User: Fold these one by one.
Assistant:
Number 1:
Amino acid sequence: RIESTRRQAMAMEAQNDQLMDDDPHLIALYYCYTPRPIPSTSLPNHVKYHQDLCARLNLNGRIRVSSEGINGVLSGNRSQLIEYERSLHDEVTRILHEDTGIDDENRNETNDDVDVGDDASLDLDVKYCKLRPDIPAETQLFDTLSVKQTREVVSLYEQKFEAAPGSNRRGGRRGRRWKKKREKVQSWQQQQQEQQEQQPQSEKQEDHYSQPDDSDDTKDDTGNETIEVPTSPEDIDLMQYPPAQHLSPQEWNQHLEGEVEGDAILLDARNVYESRVGHFAVPGVPTILPNTRKYSSLPAVFDASSEQLAGRKVYMYCTGGVRCERASAYLQALADSERWKGEKPKRIYQLKGGIQRYLETYGSIVQDEQHEATQPSPSGSNTPSDACLYKGKNFVFDPRRTDPVIGPGCPGRCLLCDAPHDDYDNGHAPCENKEARCCRCRVLVLVCNDCRSKVRIWGEEQLEAPPNKPDLHCGPGGKECIDEGNTISVQIVTS
């Protein structure tokens, strides 16, 4: 079994070699739900395994390790990332076999009654992603490594965080960065409080504070290590439900193109700032785009969308597939619960490998370094396929912000003038921290290059701007804050 899986990995490696010979550095996006839980006693050693292996291979990024499996994104040299994948597969297989008490010599002669976690079912889904050509390569690589032991591969339910007893502040550059950010936040909160104190009582609003961070990992501003305290909706047991049926990119297209109008619906499992720059658009099939800022808000969206989902085939997708694993199970469980109103969905599908894998099949690579609004590349091998049902860019949670493999068109629009626009950073590298954010709630906002100089964004000092430069907000025309993403709602778009 191990040898068979290694041959599959070698075949995949050969394919990657052919596609990425010219890319010395890549981003590896991956996850794996193991066929059996990783023993809790093995988790601390497995965390150290990742730390040691990444240090040896000079890889940086973020990794979550749990009994359910592993989820990570790393940057580094292409050959070293492939070595990491091969080593990780062997290590997880070893841990699962070790827990059964079966030694190496007898692995292939296992009693059929013992579940050893068949290697063939260990689906380590690794996607190798190219760097963007429009910003320096060194700005797109992680400069630190974080390996955390967590309760879940991804956290679908709201997490409450409390400082761990006896924990110390982080030192070094990361600690200084958080200290500076916290000081800026405290200054901003003080200004908001002073402004509200000057308002009549009837005009005062509750302030919803959110960190200027787009990842699904909640962080403690003080730099302290944190303890997760999960809360979950009542009477929903995800462990009783498997993920939805996976569809390859080709199967995804075949199913959607054969659907009768009104019989199917697309469900985006991402956040509002992600779908702003790209989403699926299929003639005759509406798409639900949640107005959320974090993954843990998705259950509330499902609860509120039963009328749209009832009696339909649901096609769910996300960036790389991992969020759909739990979200699709939750939707099945919800539909079986007393809380569901109306007819159950006919079927639930999820896109295997997510948008990333889909665009590898049907998308194109951005070639124009001055690229702003997404447009198809010149005719040839880099032209998006006519069969590509995804429009625009794929938002990612790594230093690139968006992946260079794109779909046709530009669904993103400037909030101020409504011109096509899909670059939150206005040509800057995301690590420069010049992205446009609402001055009050700090959600990412799309503002075109022409309009960008006319407003002050969050974090930009008034001294850097002309007198009376208005603050940018996330509401219509950028004039007021609507706390976008913190009020649960959905947008339904049709092609």
Number 2:
Amino acid sequence: EPSGAHCLWACSRTVPLCLSSTTPPTPTPAQTMTENNTTFLPASQRINATDAPCIVEMQEMLRECSSTATHGHDSTLSLAQGIVFWTPPQQALQAGVAAMTDPKSAAYCEDAGLPELRAALRHKLATENNLTASDVMVTCGANQAFMNVVLALCDPQDRVGLFPPYYFNHKMAFQLAGVANDNIVEARRDPATMLPDADWLEAQLPTLGLKVLVLTNPCNPTGTLAPRALLDRISKACAAHGCWLVVDNTYEYFVYNTPDGSQRIHNCLEAPHVLNIFSFSKAFGMMGFRIGYVAYMSEQQVPGGAYNLEAMLLKVQDTIPICPSIVSQRVALAALGEGAGRPWVQDKLGLVMANQQLVRDALTSALGEDAVHGGEGAIYFLACLTKAAGVTDDVNDEAVVRRLAAEFGVVVIPGSSCGAPGTIRVAYANLPVDQCRDAAARLETGLKHICE
């Protein structure tokens, strides 16, 4: 068991070579000196210790396979990056066009975001998420919201927790903040449900000494949705042991009914120790506009006094982006307005569910039903390659991903990037239905051939 790792995911056996192996080695002190008239200029140890971004490698793989077409198809199709195939509501695009010619858009706005957008978000948080006492800061996407939180809360010596399989950029954010890999604790999931194991957490938190615990709900990459009772148990345990709980709600609108038609519900928590992160990128097709936000309770108590959490977050905000793009914020504000908002997104879910069924059928046909997790929320399935019929040896998920791209023309994410070696993450909202059908067929054929 690696130092600091208290549970590996159930499908994991031997950890294969992971994408972070491309990271250059940490320089020794001797490398920083001038030798033989050559001056060495190493990167920081902090950045060397940060995992390489798997999305960059997948994008390169997509370009390479598309240009060479070794797989015999006209193009390579992506079920890798978590995006949607639609663009923002028409009224939002029109607001963006109008903002482009407004001289005010060329200036800075308030660091925390346009007042009118923040007011609209407070209303949305209160009416949709039942977060009635939270303030809000607008950021350049949910990733920057998370980075703001990590830099505001964490010191390099702190211990933090992730539930593998986790969102890879969350781990990278901790690494960028200087948190050592040995201090990134892998919390346990129930291998049957892929939900966080509250029994394990309640038993372990008293001795773990965590400063921050991170939860994505619905989950990227597992596609599972944590119910309210489970969220309450996790929050209560964190509060009892002085641990911040950061919940990434990026996929809040991507929640699907049960097979019998019962409605699943996404829930949020509000408490002084809880921060909630949200995004416009997926639901409103605003990936390139880079708008997210973080909700928090500003007034925080510490021994001997109090401090303002928003003031801490603003230190990061002012140093990195100063403020998000005004044009993008105008697009976001219009996306929340009458004629758009949550109902507009709900109309898109029927298309997503059609894709979901295509990809689910492909994965279960190739790997078996027990190998596939997800379908409750978000836009991903996590498939365990080691449960494929006839597969008894450990599977290098990266090698499988490369073969799927080169030989079959479909790109997915290796699970080792998410702390789940031996698995693949498959996105299903990237493509219109006809293209998704083609991608799913390639995926099924490829997995059957590779895992036979």
Number 3:
Amino acid sequence: MSAGDEDTELRDLVTQTLENNGLLGKIQAQLRAGVFLALEETDKKNRKVHHNKRLQQFLSTKEGLLAAGIVQEFLEFFQLDYTGAVFEPESGMVRMLVKYE
């Protein structure tokens, strides 16, 4: 067995173990959230603002803000922290909640 085969076998074993323990999905979600937040931070430094006019219009209504709040609570309740970390800045919910308080 060559070193390359051993590396592949070890990689597959580690991947399967992480998958079985439910850690692989969590690590992937954490990585996606980290990448998104890094991009968001870069955009802030470069003063680039991404506007989703359709979403902003929806969130400007009482029903829209309520619906987004329900999504936010759902993510918090089920401890989907990485999804929430992406949802909040992408949806502008943090800013919207401050605006409506």
